[in-house]
Design brief:
The protein is about 30% helix and about 25% strand. Strands 7-8-9-10-11 form a five-stranded mixed β-sheet. Strands 1-2-4-3 form a four-stranded antiparallel β-sheet. A two-stranded antiparallel sheet has the order 5-6. Helix 2 packs antiparallel against helix 3 and helix 2 crosses helix 4. The protein has five helices and eleven strands, in the order E-E-H-E-E-H-E-E-H-H-E-E-E-H-E-E. The chain has two domains: about 80 residues, MutS, DNA mismatch repair protein, domain I; about 90 residues, Trna Endonuclease, Chain: A, domain 1, CATH 3.40.1350.10. A hairpin with a 2-residue loop joins strand 1 and strand 2. It is an alpha+beta fold and about 180 residues long.
Amino acid sequence: MKKTKEQQTVFVGSKVIVSDQALASTLSNKGSFGAFVNGKLELSIEEAVYLNERKELKIYDKKGKELRFHELLEMAKKKQKRFWIRYLVFTDLRNMGYLPKTAFKYGGDFRVYNKGSIPGKEHAEWILYCSDEHESLTLLNFSAMNRVAHSVRKRLLMGVVDDEGSVTYYEVNWVRM
């Protein structure tokens, strides 16, 4: 039985599953979106919302109803407490040509690949932590971020979103004296 369009890009849990092979290949090859798991492309919430906002991907709920951009945003905000801040940073990086991928297993928000890099063939340059300009950061948390980035041989990058939605990046480097 052939799947309908409504069954080919479905919001499930905290990701979007793309089962249409042609679409999945295009998204993966064209922009290094998602990761293949059991023959289906799994997109992070940020990737899916980004593609939907740009009219490159229609997303449906489990019942087959197409989700509009504002509905996706509301669902994403319920799934991730800091979604909007993460999404603004994700979008900014993608628009500049960098490739952010989730970094939850590293305790960060994203692994960031340099422009033109191919995940799987090259390593990410940075572990990125997102925050808004009103968040405070303890020295203990900052030290932990540094240690994690250093232990996985990445540079630490902080993406700070201001009240206007602009992102400023701070790279932290080790200095030997």
